[in-house]
Amino acid sequence: MPAINPGVKVLVTGANGYLAMWITQKLLDLGYSVRGTVRSVTKGIYLKDYFERYGDCFEVAVVSDFTEEGAFDESLVGVSAVIHSATPQPNAQLEDPEDYIKPAVGSTVGILESALRSKSS
User: Fold this and answer.
1) Is the distance from CB of 22 to CB of 91 less than 8 angstroms?
2) Residues 46-101: pLDDT tens digits?
3) What is the rounded distance in angstroms from the CA atom of residue 98 to the CA atom of residue 52?
């Protein structure tokens, strides 16, 4: 028996990423509603078009900077589960691994803190 039942809303961060799109597809196929976060409206439009056949079961939330404190607070309202797959995008100009690690860890801690503050089920 799953920890959450189909029909509830699941937040998938970084929903336009390769793995996150497969995760979203599977959740929708299993009967879950999905709110996917993206960093821009353009990426959100692409996802809305891609998952159009699921109608109101898929929605998009724009979180332009997931390293900001409280970045996911609004996105978590009304969700029952979170799959955090957002990660910093590679940048050829960055040479120090900490430039990737720090925002990845920060966003993970941030979404956990947002979840603790959330009044969702």
Assistant:
1) no
2) 999 999 999 999 999 999 888 888 999 999 999 999 999 988 776 667 778 787 88
3) 38
Largest CA-CA distance found in the chain, in angstroms, rounded: 46
**Helices 18-29 + 41-50 axis angle, to 10:** 40
Residue 9, helix vs strand vs coil: strand
pLDDT in tens, 13-32: 999 999 999 999 999 999 99
- The number of CA neighbours under 13 Å toward the Cβ of 84 is 20
Q: Any idea what the Cα angle at residue 25 is, between residues 19 and 31, rounded to 5°?
A: 140
pTM here is 0.90
Q: What is the DSSP string of 26-58?
A: HHHHTT-EEEEEESSHHHHHHHHHHTGGGGGGE
Closest by CA to 119, choosing from 60, 69, 73, is: 73
CA distance 91 to 99: 9
